[in-house]
Amino acid sequence: MTRSPNTLVLARVVIRGLIVLNALYAFAIAALLIATLVKPQFLFDALGATYGHLHNALRAVVLLGILGAYLVHRVLRELLAIVDTVRDGDPFAAGNSRRLQAIAWWVLAGEGVRLLIATVVYAAAKSSPALKMDIDVGFSFAPWLAVLLLFVLARVFEQGARMRSDLDGTV
């Protein structure tokens, strides 16, 4: 392939932009964590809650948010590597199967983090009647189906790489 299609160029730009936005999110959430340590009363006043028992819940959510940003970063880096191999004309590179499998695990971990955040927020809201929160965690099949799809696609790419290797050996 001498030139990559416009969609791949656009995909690279979008993924790189998302990496930057995710890094900004991570820095903002880290600043929030520092703020809970330096001036905790200010944040609770802004939330309309008492400082008492909610400070640990807030810090847990912030730490889980930083973990979530790391997981998103890993997904985006793996996706960028896949786009680069496709752009170079080698979509069935052996590494892409491993990358897709890694993305599946990172997405699964992200869903676990989302459920942990929801649990912490739900418990905090229940323990503080003064804090009015309408918590609707909801369950969505989409992330779970995405994980299954990614594992299946990883297997397809693994098989495609093996078939291409066999074909290269016969020519």
Describe the SSE topology.
Layout: H1 6-38, H2 40-47, H3 54-87, H4 94-127, H5 141-170
Helix pairs in contact: 1-2, 1-3, 3-4, 4-5
Describe the structure.
With 171 residues, this protein is mainly alpha-helical. Helix content is 81%, strand content 0%. It has five helices and no strands. Helix 1 (6-38) crosses helix 2 (40-47), helix 1 (6-38) runs antiparallel to helix 3 (54-87) and helix 3 (54-87) runs antiparallel to helix 4. 14% of the residues are buried.
What features would you highlight for this structure?
171 residues; mainly alpha; 5 helices
Residue runs with pLDDT of under 50 for 5 or more positions: none
Tally of separate helices:
5
What does the radius of gyration come to?
A: 21 Å
Q: Distance between termini? A: 20 Å
Q: Based on CA inertia axes, which overall geometry fits?
A: elongated
Could you give a quick summary of the protein structure above?
With 171 residues, the protein is an all-alpha fold.
